[in-house]
Design goal:
By secondary structure, this protein is an alpha+beta fold. Helices cover about 25% and strands about 25% of the residues.
Length: about 900
């Protein structure tokens, strides 16, 4: 099982760090190479989902090009072709078969942006199928200098016909199998560098590689590049680097990239291969100082990297969170992985603060010490909550001196047999509970008088430790959790499961005897990640997330709009990177598209274990900075330690860095939170961190003035930049949750939410189903408001789950039977299961009301389509619904089992 140097990370968020002008030099550029050396380039790579498999091709050249100072960032969306995005990069590589540039009517706008960018000095690199791209725009064809016409295939070597061009100086060409492109619509202003020998009945050699100049910009094109046989060829990679560098203005593009500066020493390092353990490595890279390490880090165009803290100010940070003042709180551990102690540990919680506003931490305050392997921390209503197996701890500061006054055990039961499989990812939830994840060490203990036992998965508990709930199991060791801005729940596991979505919690299934939901399955389109170095050591799931840590969503507004409430960040310490996934709705479910990396490094000590959205709208990364990031299994020739990690003296105990990925547009400001009015106003801030911080502070101080202000916010929802109504959403949770609203305020909030259930805001229609009392009035609201047919699938899901708890009503059976006839409904991931939950509840209610009659079997006498006549009694309609459910076994086996449980319950 793969490992990860420190259990997990994540935690609430925030910190108001200084604004940096876009012109400030980031840490990654602080020590520029010599003036005559090539500069490092950031390059967009535009691909698609076509047969050339651009993502696979880009992955094949990513590390070799990075080793020569060219960093590729892969995209497939045509929104890349707009001012700002183009200008952020040094070059654009096009390798795609987007037939149309303007299928959505924006072709002219995109073509104009691309043309203007190139003419203004931009660098376009068109590869292979790029000459058959965007055929609806003549200006693009002219920009490339020609268009693909037809092809054959074969192995051939091109001839360099212009050896005086900067690209071809010192370049001899290469031989590879490829498609033999023939072009037409050729422009007269091309400078041809290579030709392909004529084949068959061709009249003469075919122009193969050429350049053009367009205004102040440059264009490079080569027809090489159909598949791996060419893309993995060193000759092609050399040509591609030369073309990119020349297009960006480098007139000596063949110049060698300087040495990387790494040094090595003797060491005994395990070596796992896909086929098993190989020969133990006998050397390892030496660590680098932060500035030197930073030169090997890369972030996307339009972003820069800044160092917030490094050793000795911080060491071995395993988890991070922020307080309402924007200060960073960090859990440090030297006891991890094999030195966990029941008392008197060597770990601590520290507060790091940027006092002078320069973006770097200036002060370090030890808040609590004597801990041992604290794996996550979050601010709750009564103080700092810390997970430290076997206990969940509350460390309050009652006198405000930034020192914990007490160590209160909220509950215990977390497994301690493996220090990288315990609780992590603590987050303050919209419901006022604390949410988290746990790995296979699991939980076995009593909380609030109830015995709980569960393994890897997602859970929540009340901040006072009075209740705990296992929400859903996951497939393996679990270190990732994230909440969207509307309160939807996502996560990731350590191994081969980069993204999951929690649609229905365990409690819904547990109401029905024999119905087990099973673990959450992946929603990620691929489990692969994208290192920029070949220096990757993994024990399993090679080339994939084998220490996947975190699943924080980008819930702020400083990054480009495509990130807002869509991008999730999963750290991959074994790959020296932070990957990003873009979440897309799929009915009531989600899928996660591969977004490549937000951060990646060629430094083999770099080991990102946490990526969180901070109070400034930046993404803060904890770099464990350790050459050894594998935990288990224990390699041959090594011993196993008490923490179930293999023992080696190479595990570093002294290094640690905290980086911020900062958008070139700058950071966002912190809202004031000093008084009631400011806290209520902050419920509409553009950063979810500040909204949840304000909610937490407001939950701590209930009262009539607070309730009145929240009711005003709920009565007049304001739409934000992503189409949500955040103020009303948080107000509803405060008024109708566990935050102590007065009775009159609660009743008024219920009235307002019933009005919103028929209003234009989907999130409020969903909240009405989730927060209103489970009574007959809610059934009426769902049915009469047609919420089962809502245009928003998440509203339909919430409505069905509400009906699984409201009093039995014969109208519900009629509606469920109708819905289960809709193919789109049955094919949805969550809606059929929610319908079955509602059906199970309905039959239970019928039995209790003596409305259930075991005979006759009406489904045997209904028409061929299975639909009972309208004249049949409601109980017969409901039995027909059971029959309909039993016919849905093809959807999932669980549906059939559930239907059988209904029938056997008679």
């Amino acid at each position: 099982m793969a490992a990860h140097q420190a259990l997990l990370l994540l935690a609430a968020l925030t910190l108001g760090t200084a604004n940096h002008d876009a012109g400030d030099r980031p840490a990654t550029e602080a020590a520029e190479q010599a003036a005559d050396a090539p500069r490092r380039l950031k390059v967009w790579f535009l691909g698609d989902r076509g047969h050339h498999q651009p993502a696979a091709r880009a992955a094949e050249v990513q590390a070799p090009l990075a080793a020569r100072g060219v960093d590729l960032f892969y995209r497939e969306d045509l929104d890349l072709l707009q001012p700002g995005a183009l200008e952020a990069a040094d070059a654009l590589v096009v390798y795609a078969n987007h037939d149309l540039l303007g299928a959505d009517g924006r072709g002219g706008e995109r073509a104009a942006a691309l043309l203007e960018w190139v003419r203004g000095g931009g660098a376009l690199v068109a590869v292979h199928c790029a000459s058959f791209c965007f055929r609806d725009r003549e200006e693009y064809v002219g920009l490339v200098g020609g268009q693909f016409l037809r092809h054959g295939a074969g192995t051939f070597r091109t001839e360099v016909v212009d050896g005086e061009h900067p690209i071809t100086q010192g370049y001899d060409g290469f031989e590879s199998w490829d498609e033999t492109y023939v072009h037409h619509l050729l422009s007269d202003d091309r400078r041809v560098l290579e030709q392909r020998p004529a084949q068959g009945d061709e009249a003469g050699p075919e122009d193969w590689t050429w350049t053009r100049e367009e205004g102040e910009g440059r264009v490079f094109y080569t027809a090489w590049g159909h598949d791996s046989r060419t893309w993995t060829h060193e000759g092609f990679q050399d040509l591609l680097v030369r073309g990119i560098r020349w297009a960006t203005g480098d007139d000596a593009p063949g110049k060698a990239w300087p040495e990387d500066g790494f040094t090595y020493r003797e060491a005994r390092v395990p070596n796992y291969q896909p086929a098993g353990q190989g020969r133990v490595h006998d050397s390892m890279q030496e660590p680098l100082e932060p500035a030197a390490s930073a030169r090997h880090h890369v972030v996307p165009p339009g972003m820069r990297l800044e160092l917030f803290a490094t050793e000795p100010l911080v060491t071995k940070a395993i988890a991070q969170c922020w307080d309402e003042r924007g200060r960073l709180w960090v859990a440090e551990t030297v006891d991890y992985p094999n030195d966990r102690k029941d008392a008197g540990g060597g770990d601590r919680i520290v507060i790091l603060e940027d006092v002078d506003g320069d973006g770097r931490a200036d002060t370090r305050t030890v808040y609590a010490e004597g801990l041992s392997v604290p794996t996550s921390l979050v601010h709750g209503p009564d103080g700092l909550i810390v997970s430290q197996a076997p206990a969940m701890l509350l460390l309050p500061d009652r006198d405000g001196d930034d020192r914990a006054d007490e160590r209160i055990e909220l509950f215990r039961g977390w497994g301690t047999g493996d220090t990288h499989a315990g609780p992590s990812n603590l987050r303050y939830g919209f419901d006022g509970w604390i949410w988290g994840t746990v790995g296979y060490a699991g939980f076995n203990g009593e909380v609030g008088g109830v015995q709980h036992r569960f393994g890897s998965g997602i859970y929540r508990f009340r901040p006072d430790g009075s209740a705990l709930e296992s929400l859903r199991a996951t497939t393996n060791n679990t270190w990732g959790l994230g909440l969207s801005e509307e309160g939807l729940v996502f996560g990731s596991t350590a191994n081969g499961n980069a993204s999951v979505h929690l649609g229905i919690p365990n409690r819904v299934y547990e109401r029905l005897r024999g119905w087990s939901p099973g673990p959450l399955q992946t929603i990620a389109e691929t489990q692969r990640f994208h290192p920029v170095t070949e220096g990757v050591r993994q024990v399993d799931f090679h080339g994939q997330y084998t220490a996947g840590a975190g699943h924080a969503l980008y819930t702020a507004r400083a990054f480009p709009e495509r990130y807002w409430n869509r991008a999730a960040f999963v750290s991959g310490p074994t790959g020296h990177l932070v990957g990003q996934l873009f979440l897309e709705p799929d009915g009531s479910h989600y899928r996660a598209r591969d977004g490549w990396s937000l951060f990646a490094s060629r430094d083999e000590w770099c080991a990102p274990i946490s990526a969180e959205v901070g109070p400034d709208g930046c993404v803060w990364i904890l770099d464990w900075y350790n050459y050894i990031v594998q935990h288990n299994p224990t390699p041959r020739g090594f011993d196993n330690g008490p923490g179930n990690a293999y023992v080696t003296p190479l595990r570093d105990k002294t290094h640690g860095r905290i980086w911020r990925v900062v958008p070139e547009g700058g950071t966002t400001a912190a809202p004031p939170l000093a008084d009631l009015g400011q806290r209520v106003a902050a419920l509409e801030d553009g950063n979810l961190f500040w909204r949840l911080s304000a909610q937490r502070l407001l939950a701590r101080a209930p009262g009539a003035d607070r309730d009145a202000a929240l009711l005003r916010m709920l009565a007049e929802p304001r739409v934000d930049a992503v189409g949500l109504v955040p103020g009303a959403l948080h107000a509803a949770h405060l008024l109708l949750g566990e935050a102590g609203a007065g009775e009159a305020a609660r009743l008024e909030a219920e009235r307002l939410l019933r009005l919103h259930a028929r209003g234009p805001h989907a999130v409020l229609r969903r909240l009405a189903c989730e927060l209103l009392p489970r009574d007959a009035a809610l059934t009426d609201l769902v049915l009469e408001g047609r919420l089962l047919d809502d245009a928003a699938p998440r509203v339909r899901l919430a409505a069905l789950l509400a009906l699984a708890e409201t009093p039995g009503d014969t109208r519900v059976g009629i509606e469920l039977e109708r819905l289960l006839r809709e193919p789109s409904f049955v094919e949805d991931r969550w809606l059929p299961e929610a319908a079955l939950a509602a059906a199970a509840h309905l039959f239970t209610a019928y039995k209790r009301l003596s409305l259930f009659h075991p005979a006759p079997r009406p489904w045997a006498a209904t028409p061929a389509d299975g639909r009972p006549p309208a004249s049949q009694p409601p109980r017969w309609r409901s039995l027909a619904l059971v029959s309909r459910c039993s016919q849905m076994g093809g959807h999932t086996e669980r549906l059939l089992l559930a239907a059988n449980s209904f029938l056997s319950a008679r």
